[in-house]
Amino acid sequence: QLAEIAKDTIKIYTVKEYNINNIKYAIQVPPKPKIVTQKMIAQLQAQTYTSKVETKNIDCVAEIISHRGKKIAVLNFANPVTPGGGFLRGAIAQEEAICRCSNLYQSLYQCPSYYESHFENQVYSSHTVIKSTNTMFKNEKFELIEPLEFTVFTQAAVIAFNADKEKAKKIMQERIEAVCKLIGQQHFDVVVLGAYGCGAFANDVQNVIESFKKSITFINTEQITFAVLDKHKSGLFDQFKKAFE
């Protein structure tokens, strides 16, 4: 079923329009994404800011939609070698959820060099980030909604389950700092983060939390939300909530 929803999403943004109650909505082709390299990020000037931070046990898509009318940014937990991860085959993860409800896949597909750079070394791949402007047109239940524009920062976490633990921790710290500095180069009303790399990539949860604690001060925003959907009560949401509230 999710694979069919993916096909429908692609069909909608390919024809560039859709109808809700006989009202026609247009979807613009997303602007060409910007690939920001590790070298470019290293040259960024970072300032520090104070933001309201909250943690919600909520789907990332639902959280984005709840801020309609605001300038929104989201960190997409990327698959390092495949645009959209398992989006086309109906996989369930944060990146796939965003792709099912927006034209993010259309942007990621335009960045083959990003994925090629990860083929040889998925664990310790570069800190490269894809920045794209996208349109969301479905909600978390895959119902059509009025179009909503948001900015996506796509970065792969370390694949830690087959890596040296200490090295993986250090690289995750560097990667989180890098993407927070990049997001902080412009102002957003709200920034949606989450349990980055804490699922299938098996990164150390406390290390990810501590890395975010140190780095979210670089983000220029009024509000940061950690959208940590924990349907199975694994304790992941509780760890983030305890850390940030």
Automatic annotation (TrEMBL):
Family annotation (Pfam families): PARG_cat_microb
Superkingdom of origin organism: Eukaryota
Residues annotated as domain Microbial-type PARG catalytic: 11-134
Protein name: Microbial-type PARG catalytic domain-containing protein
Provenance organism: Trepomonas sp. PC1
